[in-house]
Amino acid sequence: MARPRGKISAVCQNKECAFYRRESGKDLVKRGFNRARTQRYFCLHCETYLVETKGTPMYRRRLSERKVKQLCELLVEKNGVRSAARLTKLNKNTVVNWLNNLAEHATAISDYLVKNLDLSTYEVDEFWAMVKKNKRRLSPTARREIAKATRGRTPASSANLTSS
Q1: pTM reported for the whole predicted model
Q2: Would you call 77 helix, strand, or coil by DSSP?
Q3: Are 31 and 108 contained in the same domain?
Q4: What's the CA gap between 56 and 158, in Å, rounded?
């Protein structure tokens, strides 16, 4: 008898799939790793491959998560592009590209909250202020779930990055 499959928290990222970003009814299986050492999944409904970072700022990027986290911390502390580049030992253009990439994802999340959830821009601003304020008081379980979300395993990925 075959062993049961483990719980997979990824969702299908194919827009043509009937289970696009749906948690219920999905049927994904792990299919190894790509060259960047990112977990690959196969959707049994639409028969396409996807990676766990799809839909996140980390998708098709070469920096490690540690380096990106360091870069984000420096930018949040209001360091300039040149000083962030010097401290992370990255090219200035790389820092600018990452800043643009993170800004695009933050805009996409805010647009989603305004359009799909019918929130006003004021409510979205208050939402991000509340997220930033309460992030320190989260339980260890909630922190683990947020860590999963930042790795692109849920449709609301990159919500953490936009709270800065």
Answers
A1: 0.57
A2: coil
A3: no
A4: 6
